[in-house]
Amino acid sequence: MNKFIAVDAHECIGCHACEIACAVAHNQQNWPESIAAFHPRIEVISRQQNHVAVTCHHCNNAPCVTSCPVGALTYRNDQVHLNEALCIGCKNCVLACPFGVIEMVSAGNDARYLAQKCDLCEQSETGQPACVASCPADALKLMDDRELSDLRQRRQRMTASGESVSIKRKNLLDKPTRKGAEKLPAVQRKMHFKEIYQALSTHQAISESNRCIHCAQKAQCNWTCPLHNAIPELVRLVAEGKIIEAAELSHQTSSLPEICGRVCPQERLCEGACTLKPHSGAVTIGNIERYITDTALAQGWRPKVSSDIKTRKERVAIIGAGPAGLGCADILARSGVQVDVFDRHPEIGGLLTFGIPPFKLDKQLLTIRREIFNSMGIEFHLNCEIGRDIEFSELMSRYQAVFLGVGTYEVMRAGLEHEDSPGVVQALPLLTASARRVMGLADDAATPWIELEGKQVVVLGGGDTAMDCLRTSVRLGATSVTCAYRRDEASMPGSKKEVVNAREEGVEFLFNVQPQFIERNDDGEVTGIGLIRTQMGEPGSDGRRRPQPIVGSEFVLPADVLVMAFGFQPHAMPWLDTYQVTFDKWGLIETGKEGRLSTQTGHPKIFAGGDAVHGADLVVTAMAAGRQAAQDILILLGDSSPIQCTPITELMR
User: Fold this and answer.
1) Arithmetic mean of pLDDT, 592-612
2) What does each C-alpha distance from 223 to 4, 17, 325, 340, 548 come to in angstroms?
3) How far apart are alpha carbons 213 and 188 in whole angstroms?
């Protein structure tokens, strides 16, 4: 009889561990390079809280075999085999398969697509399919005559005795309800700029960690994390009280874990993929990540460069001390490379320091992190702007490689007349000026202080930057603060919890309104914003519905200060003009073209990553790009070996 993998749908918990295990097993036990390269040969289908995994049944009279015109699919040794070398990508097998488990996937850069199906992990050293070995609920079985007979008898006994057929599933999912970090009451927190979320106590951290069902060592939560943090293992170490070991493990994949634990949108990433989310609520991974590093640092622990690493002669210059630049510097320093980081701001962190308000991210964390990086041998050259304080040509002559982690600082405008009127301000200067005062830094002429006390403030935009401006305005004493957004609330791109926090702090929201004009008085000062109500139209090519104006619904919303919070776009870098660095039509730096390394620009010595390459995005994606650039730079310098990390098994002892 043929062998095949069967799933017990009553036991499947929808954790996707089988998909992760399959994709990793067929990628030499490494994470796929991108979501586009994620091609598991088994798929979990979910409907509400019911789940089932589907994969090739290796049918006895397989229609895929008979449909293949070139003999790429054959039936032998009780299973269906695919010879990719013979596949012509005709898709006949996809059409013929009654279970929909054969997929056409890209074969590489030659634009060819080949069939892909389950091969029962024939080449596995363990002799067991990766999906079966990884299933925490034992819902997957490699079936043959004996297994089928055993299954039939088990189900007969269960039917006769009235036992439930989903015992393990119930035990796995029966967890206490999620308890997130507590936050200060709105009436208190809106009076100051201190962080509003309280740290977990040791008891809370252990209790929350014990909720994790540890789907697998490589699970859906760490696949959806751009850094692929070892989340299940980190959570397990916290549950066991091994905080120093957890901190060591956390720093193997993240350069700023205490930062990411606070500002990452976990609900869209790791926590959004948690198996427990639709049941008792996702494990509070972000709070646990914050707890690990905060606790370890408070105990005196500091990450150090291994004593086995010898200092190299090569030197690398990094432009930008934001998350991309810091991620790159971290990996290079751990490899013995001498690193100099240049930044125009007086402190490290980039928008972490001067764009994210202190009530979301305590700036003292960046001070501690700077001390850590200094102890690793990283040199920071602050208040140093390229083209003003030092020429780019000097960096090119003095360093073996240069990394551009410059971010995106050019503001996006609304395209309204009189946007330069007194009372119209951009989001970033407002946030930067506020952060500087909270940090005790002198005001900067480039981002002057904006007085909001006693003013009516209107913020245009619906992203996280808009939420930051709204909540900052409340703390700066505005009499009223209103958010005006052109789509409905469900379409807002920002974090949902930030909308909740803003509402609690007294912010008013106007949805489905579009700006038309800026109203001014005789002195040219802003007095209001002309708006028109909108309704959502048909979806565009990107799937998002476009707002359509409602004729005759115009009105003016009074405003003393109008904040433009539409996001950021690439800024000009004229000092790159003569260095073969190319840009796309949006002004983003192009990398990885014409056979170059993924973060390498048109000039072999110049690398780039973060927002300047992929557009304004998350802290964690910028950091991941910087760390990848460091690996590419090491290849340029003649070192293709990966950073040596302590094996997880040792940390778990």
Assistant:
1) 95
2) 26, 10, 23, 32, 38
3) 37
Tokens representing residue 175 in the block:
């967890």
For residue range 228-267, list pLDDT tens digits in order: 999 999 999 999 999 999 999 999 999 999 999 999 999 9
Tell me the pLDDT tens digit for each residue of 14-53.
999 999 999 999 999 999 988 888 999 999 999 888 899 9
Band of pLDDT at residue 418, cut at 50, 70 and 90: very high
Rounded Cα–Cα distance for residues 19 and 384 (Å): 47
Q: What is the pLDDT of residues 497-540, one digit of tens each?
A: 999 999 999 999 999 999 999 999 999 999 999 999 998 888 77
Residue 105 CB neighbour total at 10 angstroms? 15
Token pair belonging to 610: 């973060």
pLDDT in tens, 134-151: 999 999 999 888 888 888
Residue 146 CB coordination number (10 Å): 9
3-state secondary structure of 278: coil
| Chain centre to alpha carbon of residue 510 | 29
What value does the CA radius of gyration of the chain take, rounded to a whole number of Å? 28
Distance CA 597, CA 224 (A): 24
**What number is the average pLDDT over the span 620-635?**
97
Residue type, 25: A
Q: Is the CB of residue 564 less than 8 Å from the CB of residue 402? A: no
- 306-343 b/e (C-beta count within 10 Å ≥ 16 → b): eeeeeebebbbbbbbbbbbbbbbbbbbbbbbbbbbbbb
CB count within 10 Å of CB 387 equals 12
Indicate the range of 219-233, 295-309, 580-594 predicted with least confidence.
Answer: 295-309
Q: How confident is the model at residue 162 (pLDDT cuts 50, 70, 90)?
A: confident
- The one-letter amino acid code at 412 reads M
Give the distance between the most distant pair of CA atoms in the chain: 90
Q: Compute the distance between CA of residue 590 and CA of residue 599 in angstroms, rounded to an integer.
A: 9
Cα 199 from Cα 535, distance rounded (Å): 42
Q: Which of 432, 256, 412, 413 is nearest to 344 (CA)?
A: 432
Distance set, CA 244 to CA 13, 234, 295, 612, 643 (Å)? 32, 11, 9, 35, 20
Q: Give the N- to C-terminal CA distance of the chain in Å, as an integer.
A: 43
Question: Taking CA 435 as the corner, what is the angle to CA 432 and CA 436, rounded to the nearest 5 degrees?
Answer: 85
Question: Quick one: pLDDT band at residue 577, thresholds 50, 70, 90?
Answer: very high
Alpha carbon distance 45, 42 (integer Å): 10
Distances in whole angstroms, Cα of residue 219 to Cα of each of 22, 239, 546 = 11, 18, 36
Q: Which two tokens stand for residue 371?
A: 């001390």
Residue 125 CB: number of other CB atoms within 10 A?
Answer: 6
Answer whether 324's CB lies under 8 Å from 332's CB. Answer: no
Dihedral sign, CA of 192, 197, 199, 203?
positive
Residue 114: strand, helix, or coil: strand
| Separation CA 634–CA 401 (nearest Å) | 10
- Counting Cα atoms < 13 Å in the Cβ hemisphere of 58 gives 21
CA distances from 252 to 15, 64, 246, 284, 302 (A): 25, 44, 10, 21, 13
Mean model confidence pLDDT for the chain: 92
Confidence bin at 339 (pLDDT 50/70/90): very high
The answer to whether 512 and 533 are in contact (CB under 8 A) is: yes
Write down the pLDDT at residue 21. 96
